[in-house]
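WARN no homologs supplied; continuing
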Amino acid sequence: MTLANAARSRKPGNHPALILMTDEHRLADPAPLMEMLPPGTGVWLRHYDAPEREALARRLMVIVRRRRLVLVVAGADWRLAARVGAAGVHLPEAVARSVSLAGLRLWLGHGRVLSVAAHSRSGLARAARLGADCALLSPVFPTASHPGAVTIGAARFALWARRAGLPVVALGGVNEASARGLRFAAGLAAIGGFQRR
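OK structure emitted
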């Protein structure tokens, strides 16, 4: 079973069931991996500190259109997402606590995706109050992105996701094997889970 196969059984809302999270340290150039993703897969562009972030987003949009993927730009700069033709915005949890959503809501009103990062039940509640299409809850399992971080675990993930009031996507240590234990996950998001083929 591949991660893509595990995602097929998920019931997403207005978001992809399978999401590649870019990472400027672990996946400096996501383009080659994107060429192998099945149509409909989401690509959440983080690369927050990339000096040419807009140029990178535009280059990735060429692949997104050709491969029929879904690009969502992470961070508070929804205008960047609008300029490159992205499908939506992903707000890190700290940004979701402080960002003004007025202009963002206007842009999102056209069927675009709003996802919000959450690392706790209060983060999930905030995402629901913001009207997010989904929350990415992490870290579910041990992950190379945050070594030593306290993990949520499959049982707590299921409990929190069931009570969240919005679709919850699992992130953090998600791969083909760990995906099997993720009940109530509306989707699967990963970095390394895609790289181990």
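The mean pLDDT is 91.
OK
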